[in-house]
TrEMBL record:
Its EC number is 5.1.1.3. It comes from the Bacteria. The active site is at C71 (proton donor/acceptor), C180 (proton donor/acceptor). Provides the (R)-glutamate required for cell wall biosynthesis. It comes from Gloeomargarita lithophora Alchichica-D10. This is Glutamate racemase. Keywords: Cell shape, Cell wall biogenesis/degradation, Isomerase, Peptidoglycan synthesis.
Length: 269
């Protein structure tokens, strides 16, 4: 059974998994969280490319038919090279998220990791889709650790999020992109702190729509019943399983994966 692979640094990719199960519930999934090396948001392009190669090599050995890179930083810094190196479709979040945003507004705020902000990937993609759009970015280094450590709904979370939203509210954005797959896990707090007229864009939904179209075009859709999810992590399975329970509604079985070392591939800086 060929699965759709999803990988992220940790819990954030669960938002992509959730969108995939909603839109394509029949598809079997292989989910990998690189929890031993979370967060990705301050990593270099060389590191992210190396991590991606290791993960995709392992996924290829498991027989995936498509991979969704459920990490905006990896999508910004490593996706194009990975697409050149591996034989199956590999889709990222930036372009689908940008296209979804310009359908909703013209004053677009992007909350993202420092590396994604520095890459400029979202402003480029947004202006490619709509040259008239204004784009404001805010790096949010504290949010991924907050979520991965299970502190996303503690009293300390609210003022941290308020601080990150303040620059966007000051310029009166009409749309906010969650430029990291972890951030939709904070959507209830975001909704409470943003004006009701501000649209919130989760690129995961747009990514899965693009994946569904690609599966149709390539004739790769699974037509059986629900395929289920196999979970693997590079860190401690028990920690991931415990934290994931709150987002999945059940304790998932999670296996520890020792990633293969990738030898002989050129490093692109």
């Amino acid at each position: 059974m060929n699965r759709i692979g999803i990988y992220d640094s940790g819990l954030g990719g669960l938002t992509v998994l959730r969108a995939l199960q909603k839109q394509l519930p029949q598809e079997p999934v292989l989910y990998f969280g690189d929890t031993a090396r979370v967060p990705y948001g301050t990593r270099s392009a060389v590191e992210l490319l190396t991590f991606g190669r290791e993960i995709l090599t392992w996924m290829g050995e498991q027989g995936v038919k498509m991979v969704l890179v459920a990490c905006n930083t990896s999508s910004a810094l490593a996706l194009e090279q990975l697409q050149r190196e591996f034989p199956w479709p590999i889709l990222g979040l930036i372009l689908p998220g940008a296209r979804a945003a310009v359908q909703m507004g013209r004053r677009i705020g992007v909350l993202a990791t420092p590396a994604t902000v520095q890459s400029g990937a979202y402003p480029r993609a947004i202006r490619e889709a709509c040259p008239q759009a204004g784009v404001w970015q805010v790096p949010c280094p504290a949010l991924v650790p907050l979520i991965e450590q299970g502190r996303s709904h503690t009293p300390e979370a609210r003022p941290i999020i308020q601080n990150y939203l303040a620059p966007l509210l000051s310029v009166q954005v009409d749309t906010v992109i969650y430029g990291c797959t972890h951030y939709p896990l904070l959507d209830d707090l975001m909704a409470d702190l943003l004006p009701p007229q501000v649209q919130r864009i989760d690129p995961a939904t747009a990514l899965v729509r693009a994946a569904a179209q690609e599966l149709d075009v390539l004739g790769l859709k699974h037509h059986g019943t629900g395929g289920g999810v196999r979970f693997g992590v590079s860190g401690f399975p028990r920690n991931f399983s415990r934290l994931a329970q709150g987002w999945l509604g059940a304790i998932p079985p999670v296996e520890a994966v020792n990633l293969p070392m990738v030898q002989g591939l050129p490093v692109v800086d």
